[in-house]
Fold Transcriptional regulator.
Amino acid sequence: MSIKQSMLALLQQGPMYGYQLRSEFEERTGSTWPLNIGQVYTTLTRLERDGLIEVVDTGHGEARGEAEGATDGAGERQVSYRLTEAGAKEADSWFTSPVPRTQPPRDELAIKLALAVTLPGVDIGQLIQRQRAATMAALQEHTRAKRSQTADPASVEGLALGLVLDSLVFDTEAEIRWLDHCESRLRRAAAARTATPTQEEDR
């Protein structure tokens, strides 16, 4: 997930400070991927360093005629940022480019299974059963979240949250199908080994 591009996309609406950006992101994604406020401020610092955003209000209160600036929910000064021209181009480029799939992210479960089949003493059947139970529980949780969604599905906010929850449901369903496939392949491989006598048995 790209926090950098998400921050730039949100800033297309206008200047915001870090806590606002975190709230906007979590509201639009149903808090599915909670953001650490420290991560938000670190990202903002890097975006400013790279010339993609700039400070529009230092948070000391001068712009609002205050003696002291306000603080956000994290106790930080409300330093507001806006997109630069380069930042706006970067946000536009993100929306108009497909997410690359040429280098798929490392999947911990796939790596675990790949190692398990090559190492002695690992009960792969039990590994798959436990994972299936955990994935089924996650699927039920996502389904409950869809049913209990309070935002109007016809509203922009409801549509955004619905799309995120659909993605989570589809991902977990695909993982369950893949686990079924793995179990089936392992059974066929075990049967083939049993049916083919080893060289030791031929002697």
Q: What stands out?
A: The chain is about 60% helix and 5% strand. Residues 156-195 form the longest helix (40 residues). The chain has a mean pLDDT of 86.
